[in-house]
Design brief:
- By secondary structure, the protein is an alpha/beta fold.
- Among the domains are: 155-324, no CATH class; 344-428, no CATH class; 449-681, no CATH class; 842-909, no CATH class.
- The protein contains 53 helices and 25 strands.
- Strand 21 (1245-1249) and strand 22 form a beta hairpin.
- The chain is globular, with a radius of gyration of 40 Å.
- It comes from Polyangium fumosum.
- Its cofactor is Zn(2+).
- Part of an energy-coupled inorganic carbon pump.
Length: 1311
């Protein structure tokens, strides 16, 4: 890190500032878009990657943000096991993603061909992942992995392997006495060198005298169990094996050694006695164990590898514990390396001979050729030559001998070929290879600083210190103190100056720098430039980050605290947000402060470990001269060293940090040699093949493919390598998109089967409807709509975006400010206020006075409890009284909530209100800061909105006497994410006011007259009623009931009765997914339960929100009416018959598409990776600054959805079924970039249903609309929804709900 001589760094210019601002603007796209938690707006978590195809985006997001984009592979395999994904789904997914691509042949086995498709299927279903170096197979695959075939094998593969094993064993058994001994048999079955071990033991005694014991041979043959008719041939085989050795003519020696070795091998592998009959009986009784072991040995033999899993030593056949033996051998090798001063140079026979020739040439030189100091030189030559000879082995030259040879050649010259000899030995020198390896690793490390990593990553890899563990809590403390919106009692001084200036002012008095012992912190603080952009440039210069890498480096810094950085960016992009107007902050200011701390902590860590300031050039210079240290540090802090090496390295670095180590270069060099030797020997032999990575996977692959040991032994190395290469190609990035696509196809096909059959069976309703209800398109309304239509087929329901086309800013009665009730992409057209009705003005005045008094009392209590003096005296009293509400909400939530409402009503009686639509602001009254100037709608504007909505949903004729509009919202206790349950189309707020305003517009005679002129004739006896549905309690709040005409009131009362029963049924259906709900409750009890959940202070799941959302239908209700969709579908009403050009559809897609996709994708990503893209469990959440939540008292602001909201969610991209011609959809797709991005990049799936034929076409990116192929799946039919869902907790496929024919109209009215 460069010195800090001045407040303004070199090279600052207008261009560099603009470049930096451009980079920061680009960084903002990858940050979370979530704003203050009070207004939670669902959005695509990866909105910054939405310009990419979905599959590319999740890979890029993983690289940048570290999050997973799909479910774990094991979860997809679980779904396959329970039938939620089938083989047909996988095949359809493969065709839709890749087309009809023919599989590539890999290997010919007998009369069949193994193809890439076969390997891909096995990788999909079973994984077949390699073992890690040193890992045993048993922990992952079970204790019987080497004794039984895999349980998931197909019956055909199992039968083939067992039959082949039996046949091969019987053939080998028949060779006993002909060309096999028992030792040969075991070598053939187990690929274990039993004959060689027997021969070695038999030849230990060189005596060739005839045996003194004539019974030794018969006794040994009896012990081995050799049949009588095979003994003569058996002895001939033994004599042939001993013919050229010291034990010839002593067959009993072979037989006695064979008895011992065979017994040892059979006991270790099979637990049986060492006799031929025992072997035969064991193998015939359990051919499976033989098949497995033979297949393992054949797999190892394919790559020429020894067996690291064997219970006996591969050479001397003694029992051993593999892990312990491996560690002991490693320790001995490392000790040997240290004793000889470094690694030996490996030699082949030619090089060893050349070394001997060179030494001989030096010894043969005459003394006279060495000048006046011939005697001393001759002595030195002799000493060096002796060293070389002493350290020269048959296949290696020890380090000391190599150094002697090099000194010999350097000081005294040698034959002309000696230089090429030294060059060849140097290329084989493990130490040189170590240095070259370290140099490559260093270039990789330092080259990534900027493009991919930051200084923290470099320091973590080289020192084990994570500087962000210190920086992040401090930057959170500083920034959250600035962002606080009312939680803190004391606020940061100077917040109105902006974050950067407020920090500079605050930091002057902060003792953090001294407590952390940050060198130069005060000087650096004084040298901060006045502009935040210049401070960033100054910090980047001191860190040594080149201008080319500013963007990636700063992005890496930001994504370290994505929640906080995202909140800062949200504030920056909402300049009218009240807190932003009062206390401005932006990413420039945030990064200026953030990098200030980065510079200080990088400097401290670098000084302690390396003695420099930590800029990139200083690191580059230091490690170019300390490459061995790099290798040791990297291995140590990645945890790659065994304990004994890690202790040495740690002790060496600690001694150097403490200043007690004199010169440690030699020790570091030897340690680096050891580390490199460890890495090179860790199962990287035989051309890079290893038992755990290659042979074990081939062993598993052969089982599943039904390749017998003989067939595998007949396969060439090239063939085995092709098999594994095909398996390597099936990596998670290849498999997970295929699994996900198949998962979505399975659900899509089931729903489309039901909907297409439903269209064919649909019978239009005859006569005038009794009531029509317009709900929000929200998936949570699907169930209550279905229950209403089950009970009353004469009722008709519609679905639309829940702001009902009325974009307003709404100021509720007594509220301090208006809130926007419209999608985030829309702007409120007017600000409307709820006011008391004229007859309620006196009641409102009384209520207002009491409200102000209660507010003052709350403020006093709040300040008293926060004051450090007063709280000491009153906290015990207030705490005692506060206990009762807590106990009430925990133990008796529903009763306490009812009592609280009654108490509140007694103190603050309800006031009759209205929302005037034509009231302009009184003259001389200035609007509140940030509020709209326009406070009314003209009659024409009202007619525009009424006509537009009715056309959008297809309600242009056949109006019922009552048309109810139902907005929605949610209520619960102790729930920071409450707004996430509210209406997304209303900006995360309740949609009741929008429904109320629309109903008031539609009931206005002047508005109806204008609407009638536009072709929509609303009968005079039709009344529009605004309501709000509480999706947590299923309560329905009715607005302006006093305005309902007398002749319509009976129909309204009847409607309310139907809705009450629909509430109960909806609550009953919801209870099936609540673990704590009563089992098999009555509908009334179910309703009481959901009401109690919403009032329960301890309830983390008051409702399940949009969990399981997966589908959307944009079309007439007749498409989905009578189909059980399990609350998983958005239902948007649209009539293609009145929209021949697709104008209405275009607007609907632009409104509903982004909203639906945002909800669906936020649930998707919060489910697949709740740690990165979600906000974890609610349990440790604390509200921070009234703007978000964090876990515990520190950490980042958590974005996304909590675990309790997504526990039962099934992550699928939204399947959007649109009833329209593909020509119309194609034109909209080409015209609208927003739709093209979502659909063309596969963030949502588009399906077109022809409005005339009902034929479906699926849109495939890059291909267009492809005919959907019906699968003729059966769809169950039941009389009521409860008959289908009762007693189930998990996923349910669609079903037809076909209640009995309704009674006659008179009977229905009586009912």
């Amino acid at each position: 890190m460069r010195a800090m001589p001045s407040a303004v760094p070199r090279g600052i210019s207008v261009e560099s500032r603009k470049h930096l601002e451009h980079e920061i603007h680009h960084i903002a796209h990858v940050l979370p878009g979530q704003g203050p938690i009070e207004t939670f707006i669902h959005h695509n978590t990866l909105h910054g990657f939405q310009h990419l195809h979905f599959e590319q985006a999740v890979v890029e997001a993983r690289r940048v943000l570290g999050g997973r984009g799909y479910l774990p592979l094991d979860e997809y395999r679980r779904l396959y096991a329970i039938g939620r994904i089938t083989d047909e789904d996988l095949e359809r997914a493969r065709r839709e993603r890749n087309g009809a691509v023919e599989p590539e042949p890999l290997l010919r086995i007998g009369d069949r061909t193994v193809t890439t498709r076969d390997v891909e299927r096995l990788a999909l279903l079973h994984g077949l992942d390699p073992l890690e170096p040193g890992e045993g197979a048993e922990p992952r695959f079970g204790p019987n992995v080497f004794s039984v075939l895999r349980p998931e094998l197909s019956a055909e593969a199992r039968e083939h392997l067992l039959a082949t094993a039996k046949r091969e064993f019987e053939a080998a058994l028949a060779r006993i006495g002909r060309d096999f001994t028992v030792a040969d048999l075991l070598a053939d079955l187990l690929a274990t060198p039993v004959p060689a071990a027997v021969l070695e033991e038999a030849c230990l005694d060189g005596s060739t005298d005839e045996s003194a014991d004539p019974d030794a041979i018969p006794r040994a043959l009896d012990t081995l169990g050799i049949p009588e008719d095979a003994r003569a041939g058996y002895l001939d085989l033994v004599r042939d094996k001993l013919a050229s050795g010291p034990a010839k003519n002593r067959p009993e020696r072979w037989l006695e050694a064979e008895v011992r070795k065979v017994r040892r091998v059979l006991l270790a592998h099979f637990g049986v006695e060492g006799t031929l009959p025992a072997i035969a009986e064991r193998m015939r009784r359990d051919p499976e164990g033989l098949a497995v072991l033979s297949l393992l040995r054949a797999s190892l033999a394919s790559f020429g590898l020894s067996d690291p899993f064997s219970p006996i030593h591969a050479e001397n056949l003694t029992p051993e514990e593999p892990v312990g033996a491996r560690i002991e051998a490693l320790f001995e090798r490392i000790e040997h390396l240290e004793a000889w001063g470094g690694p030996a140079i490996p030699l082949d026979a030619e090089l060893a001979a050349r070394v001997r020739d060179t030494v001989r040439a030096h010894l043969e030189e005459r003394d006279g050729a060495l000048g006046p100091h011939a005697g001393a030189a001759t002595s030195e030559i002799a000493r060096l030559c002796l060293t070389v000879v002493h350290d020269l082995g048959p296949d290696h030259l020890r380090r000391r001998g190599f150094e002697a040879l090099r000194a010999l050649e350097s000081a005294f010259g040698g034959p002309p070929s000696s230089e090429s000899l030294i060059a060849k030995l140097t290329t084989r020198d493990p130490r040189r290879q170590m240095m070259e390896h370290a140099a490559r690793r260093w270039e990789e490390h330092i080259g990534k600083v900027g493009p991919e990593t930051c200084h923290r990553d470099l320091l973590l890899a080289l020192t084990g210190e994570d500087i962000h563990e210190k920086i992040h809590p401090q930057i959170m403390r500083v920034t959250m103190a600035f962002l606080d919106e009312g939680l803190a009692a004391w606020h940061v001084a100077g917040r109105s100056l902006g974050f950067y200036d407020a920090f500079r002012k605050m930091a002057e008095h902060d003792r953090f720098f001294e407590l952390e012992d940050l060198p130069g912190a005060r000087d650096a603080l004084r040298e901060l430039p006045p502009l935040a952009v210049d401070a960033i440039l100054q910090s980047l210069e001191r860190l040594g980050v080149p201008e080319l890498h500013w963007g990636p480096y700063l992005r890496r810094i930001c994504v370290g605290l994505p929640g906080l950085a995202g909140m800062v960016h949200w504030r920056e992009t909402h300049p009218d947000y009240p807190a932003q107007r009062a206390h401005p902050i932006d990413l420039l200011q945030f990064l200026a402060v953030r990098l200030f701390y980065e510079v200080l902590f990088v400097r401290r860590a670098s000084l302690r470990a390396f003695g420099h300031d930590g800029d990139v050039d200083a690191f580059r210079h230091y490690f170019s001269n300390h490459l061995p240290e790099l290798l040791v540090r990297h291995a140590l802090f990645l945890g790659e060293l065994p304990d004994f090496l890690a202790e040495r390295a740690r002790a060496l670095f600690e001694a150097r940090s403490a200043g007690t180590a004199a010169s440690d270069d030699g020790a570091l060099l030897r340690l680096a040699d050891m580390v490199f030797d460890l890495k090179q020997s860790a199962e990287h032999v035989n051309g890079g093949h290893s038992a755990r990575h290659h042979a074990f996977r081939l062993f598993l692959l052969a089982q599943h493919l039904g390749i017998s040991p003989g067939e595998l032994r007949a396969t060439s190395l090239e063939g085995a390598t092709r098999l594994l290469a095909a398996l390597d190609a099936c990596d998670p990035d290849t498999l997970t998109p295929l699994w996900q696509c198949a998962y979505e196809i399975h659900y899509r096909d089931g729903v489309l089967e039901a909907l297409t059959q439903n269209v064919r069976d649909h019978k239009p309703y005859a006569g005038r409807r009794e009531a029509q209800i317009v709900f929000c398109m929200d998936d949570r309304e699907e169930s209550i709509r279905r229950h209403i239509e089950e009970m009353r087929p004469s009722y008709e329901t519609f679905g639309v975006a829940g702001f009902f086309g009325v974009a307003i800013a709404y100021e509720a009665l007594g509220a301090r400010e208006a809130v926007p009730l419209c999608p985030i992409v829309a702007t409120p057209a007017a600000q409307l206020c709820e006011v008391p009705r004229p007859e309620a003005m006196h009641a409102w005045a009384s209520r207002s006075l009491r409200t102000r008094a209660l507010a003052a009392l709350r403020d006093v209590i709040r300040e008293v409890t926060r004051n450090p003096v007063s709280s000491y005296f009153v906290i015990d009293i207030l705490g005692f009284f506060s206990l009762f509400p807590v106990l009430g909400r925990l133990l008796f939530p529903r009763a306490f909530d009812r009592m609280s409402r009654r108490a509140k009503h007694a103190v603050l009686p309800a006031v009759e209100t209205e929302v005037p639509l034509d009231r302009e602001r009184e003259k001389g009254t200035a609007p509140k800061q940030g509020s709209l100037q326009k406070t009314h709608f003209t009659v024409v504007e009202q007619a525009d909105r009424v006509a537009a909505l009715l056309r959008n949903i297809g309600l242009v004729r056949d109006f019922a006497p009552v048309v109810m509009l139902s907005g929605h919202g949610s209520e619960s206790r102790n729930n920071p994410h409450l707004s996430a349950y509210d209406c997304g189309a209303c900006g995360g707020k309740h949609g009741g006011p929008n429904a109320r305003v629309f109903a008031r517009m539609a009931n206005d005679p002047e508005v109806r007259a204008l609407v009638r002129e536009r072709g929509i004739d609303i009968p005079d006896d039709t009344w529009f009623l605004g309501t709000e549905h509480n999706t947590a309690t299923d309560e329905i709040l009715y607005f302006d009931l006093g305005d309902v005409p007398h002749d319509v009131r009976p129909a309204v009362e009847k409607l309310r009765g139907v809705l009450q029963r629909a509430r109960e049924r909806s609550a009953h259906e919801r209870c099936r997914k609540f673990e704590s709900a009563p089992k098999n409750p009555t509908p009334a009890r179910a309703l009481r339960h959901v009401v109690g959940r919403a009032a329960d202070l301890s309830q983390a799941r008051p409702e399940l929100g949009h969990a399981t959302i997966a589908f959307a239908v944009i079309g007439p209700r007749s498409i989905s009416q009578g189909v059980f969709l399990d609350r998983r579908s958005f239902l948007i009403s649209y009539d293609p018959a009145i929209d021949p050009e697709g104008t209405i559809l275009e607007g609907t897609l632009l409104a509903a598409g982004p909203v639906g996709a945002g909800i669906n994708l936020e649930y998707y990503f919060s489910t697949v990776d709740n740690t990165t893209y979600g906000c974890g469990t609610k349990v440790p959440h604390n509200v921070a600054g009234l703007i978000g939540v964090m876990e515990g008292a520190s950490g980042d602001l958590r974005t996304g959805l909590p675990r309790q909201m997504i526990e039962i969610h099934e992550p699928m991209r939204l399947q959007m079924l649109v009833v329209a011609k593909t020509e119309i959809l194609g034109k909209i797709y080409e015209k609208q970039p927003a739709i093209r991005e979502l659909v063309g990049n596969a963030w949502v799936h588009l399906i077109a249903m022809d409005p005339e034929t009902g034929v479906c076409m699926s849109f495939q990116p890059g291909k267009g609309f492809i005919p959907w192929e019906p699968q003729d799946l059966p769809v169950k039919t039941v009389k009521a929804s409860a008959a289908w869902y009762s007693g189930t907790l998990d996923f349910l496929p669609p079903a037809f709900i076909r209640p009995d024919e309704p009674p006659a109209r008179g009977q229905a009215a009586h009912a």
